[in-house]
Structure formats: C-alpha cells, structure tokens
C-alpha cells in the first residue's frame, strides 16, 4: 500500500521510514492542501501533520484521487473538516496521546527559561558579558499557577508545577475531581483562574468555543505581571490583544510554542526571507516574550509513539481490521 506523507521533515523519515513492512512511503516536503492533494494519486492513505490544510476542498480532491484514509500524525484535528470527511465517507485517524510528557515538560521549560531569562543570559555569557542587571526572576515556589484545560497534558503540567511548590488552580468544563483532590489542585471558574494566577498555562483544544478564549477581556482580568504560556494552539489567543497587553505592561512575560498565524511560517527555515507577518515581528521585539516554533512534541519518545500508532493504524486499515481504540475520528 502506498501512503503519501505530507509536510515531511528529516525526523519523520527517520521514525516512519524503517517501519511498516510492506507500506511504501511517498514522502513530500510540502504541505497538504486542496492544491497539493492531487499528488496523493495512487495512494490509498495519506499521513498529515498539524499545519496541513484538510478543508472540504482538500478532502474532496483526496477522495477523487482514490485516498480512503487520512492518518493524522498529531493529536489536534482543528485543521481538518470532520463534517466533510464524514460526508465523503473518508476514514480519519489521529494519535490522541503520544507523549503528553513532551508537551508538559516543554511548557515548564519555557516558563523556567522566560522567568530566569536563560535565553538572554546565554547570549550575554557567550559575549563575555557577565553582568546580571535585568536578569531578575521570581521563585516559583509559593506562587500560583493556573491550568486551563486538565486533559492529558494539563494534568502533567499541573503535577510538574506542584513539584516546584506552586499552588495550582485549574479550569476545565469537564473537571477531574478525583485527580484534582489527589494532586492538591483546586478547580475554579475561568475568571478566577485568570485573575488569581501568577502563571497561566493553556492546555485546551482549539474548537469554535475556545478560539480567542484569551482575548482582550480575558487579558484585562489577569494579575499584573502574570506570565502566560501557550503550548496548545495559537488561535486560543487573540494576538492583537496580546500585543496591546504587552505594550501596556500588564503581562510580565509570554512564552509561546504556537502562534495564531503559524501555518505559513513554522517548520521552515525562513531566515533568508523578509518576515511579512507584522504581529509576529512585533512579538519578537518584546524582551519578555519567548517563542519556539511548535516544537513541544519534539522528543524521541513522542516521535516513536506517533510512528507506532500511525503505522499500526495503516496496517490495520490495509488488512481490514478495526483501528486502535480511541484513534478513529471519522
Ligand atoms: P486532551 O483532550 O487530553 O485535554 C484537553 C482538555 O481541555 C480536556 O480536559 C477538555 O475538557 C478541556 N477543555 C475543553 N474546552 C475547554 C475550555 N473551554 N476551557 C478549559 N478546558 C477546556 O488534550 P491534550 O492531549 O492534553 O492536548 C492539549 C492541547 O495541546 C491541545 O490543544 C493540543 O492540540 C495541544 N498539543 C500541542 C502540541 C505541541 O507540540 N505544541 C503537541 C500535542 C498537543
């Protein structure tokens, strides 16, 4: 069976390539979209990633090219029109949990780096500038963290922050009360988490309800000097409002692994090209903003987990067996 893999990077080839026995991988470096779907002709399945654009037109073109399965090698599926997939009878799978540790640990890494200004200190010391002015941080111990979304990743992040001696508050429309009481985490309203936290970390999915959940109103409620961490999805935050809040000096620091308009930018080397995105450019000018380019998932364990589930589902599909429980979306 031929499988078209889109948005392929070296690490995808490394982790997918040797697996799958009789699967013939057709690796494409470019993104999957309505325009590139035609290149899946001859493939029974395609394997897509977070910034591929699987809208209705793309899915229609895939179906017309003979594709019967979209295997997402990620957890989030906000980039896929599920109703259109259902309508077309297209099978869709994802990898709901590969290494939630990878993402939770990256959220904490961003917080530590931003708070203790490691990124700035690293550059200074390399230039033999051993001065400490401007590098003052704060103890996490005794501060309050607010976790928005207590699914797989949010719970792990809460546990790590509890390990620093932080008080942890959380909001989730589907609270896990047993977990929370075992971990010493307190569920509060969305507003209370915003206004009562020194560090706010986003761990909810992107849905029509959560788009811009952190907007001007929400940012107006945060504690003066609070840190905001987003390793979930860029569109959870209204970037324009975020910039206004940073300019007003309300937020103490912002760490992002995801960005609202990342689709056209992230995962590529654009260092030789003039950046056209004015909001990202502005964000990069703040001394208290730290951005990584959607790398929270990038650990060996996560890549191996993604490859294992993706390949197993492709093999099951080929032999007519049911997909791994909990991985089928359509
Ligand atoms: P999950 O499905 O296990 O948990 C999500 C939680 O969010 C659930 O408990 C759900 O009830 C809750 N939720 C839903 N709506 C909410 C709302 N309005 N407010 C607060 N909570 C809400 O998901 P997960 O695996 O923990 O993933 C969390 C996020 O991390 C997702 O957005 C996912 O796309 C993202 N992610 C990012 C990376 C990366 O590399 N940066 C990698 C994997 C996942």
Please, could you describe this protein's structure?
It is globular, with a radius of gyration of 21 Å. Helix 1 (10-16) packs across helix 12 and helix 4 (100-116) packs across helix 6. 39% of the residues are buried. It starts with a strand and ends in a 12-residue tail after the last helix. The model has no long low-confidence stretch (mean pLDDT 97). The longest helix is centred in the last third of the chain and has 19 residues, at 300-318. The strands form 2 sheets. The chain has a 7-stranded parallel beta sheet, sandwiched between helices. A 5-stranded parallel beta sheet has the order 2-1-3-4-5, with helices on both faces. Helix 6 links the parallel strand 6 (144-148) and strand 7. Helices cover 35% and strands 14% of the residues. It is α/β, with parallel strands linked by helices and 330 residues long. Nicotinamide-adenine-dinucleotide (NAD) binds next to helix 4 and helix 6. The site of nicotinamide-adenine-dinucleotide has 30 residues, from helix 4 and helix 6.
